[in-house]
């Protein structure tokens, strides 16, 4: 029996112990729980930090058609649709204009009462796709506004509003792979063709980077960068100069003269006034609209008589006008919106447009010439009113109401017949005319330079000025 017990104890001692000690199990569970707790804390911290400081919300993106129709294609529905007035734009949506249309894509911060962040105008034969337009979820976040566009071609006119409250990261990717970065408030022009990319920095900060190049090219204010895609070279040159002062109406003053207009600020360098002996009177004033400084021309009170509000900037006198014969390029550029007009078209004589442009200049033979061109936003097909005034060389242009529109003449030296080409400029005038009108003008520039102009799209003005009535 003793031998049996001995053998039993020996067998027990030699057999393996598959049990786990309670102390070790408890420590293991505790360490595992602590590790899970640490992971949850880290993940929660990262998640909360991202949500509070890094997460974003989409900005409001609204497309306003200034003229003609615009094609819109969404990635979720690849069938192209045509828009005539306005609509919201979502991410991965492509927008394109034809040879007769223009549209402005506005990005707004809905958390700041819809304040404008940036406005991008697509000129004729232009296209882009919206990849992203976002703002931080919370005001205390330090991240920037972000606007990302790709597949860009054609000409874009970009305005980034002042006093945004935070920085902006705008990235524009062309179809050839070039990248354009915009990071400050200001005004920019981008022109993309198959052969080159042109970036004009009128006011702000811009950088151009070509594919397969590590370094980008900073573009100072008042200069332009032209990248030739075939050779990969970038040339920086001065952009066109503006012969007008305060062309964007940002500089204002308060008149000291006591009168109907004394309480309204008006822009410097411009002389504005109303047609004499007209009741009710019209008025003019500096006003911010859609993040832009504007000159507001207005006449209401159910007026049924003729009225006119005129703004003039002289560049000389008839005896001593401003000599422009040394320039190779001269063009007039205007950005405006017509909010209301009571008359149909431009009145029964074609001379009462809600906005008229007028350039007084001396030609090659020393004769004073007056060039006029008008715009209107109301047209009744049944009322056969003329669309050209007696002294105009081209038809007035119809644009959509309550939408920004940018008009450019192209090079006046090539548009006018040789004997009528400008040699010197006397003055630039714009005015609102009619019974009732409500117009905002945000830019009036007269650009000149020695450089060959960027590729232009033929328009109605070229045909009209080459074949004047």
Largest sheet: 18 strands, mixed
Work out the radius of gyration.
32 Å
Could you state the CATH homologous superfamily of the largest domain?
Galactose-binding domain-like
Strand content: over 45%
Number of helices: 4
Terminal-residue CA separation? 137 Å
Structural class by sheet pairing and helices: mainly beta
CATH class of the largest domain: Mainly Beta
In total, the number of domains comes to 2
Q: Note the quaternary state here.
A: single chain
Mean pLDDT: 84
What do you see in this structure?
By secondary structure, the chain is mainly beta. The protein contains 4 helices and 33 strands. It has an 18-stranded mixed β-sheet that branches. Strands 22, 25, 26, 28, 29, 30 and 32 form a 7-stranded mixed β-sheet that branches. Strands 19, 23, 24, 27, 31 and 33 form a 6-stranded antiparallel β-sheet that branches. The longest helix has 33 residues. The radius of gyration is 32 Å and the shape is elongated. The termini are far apart.
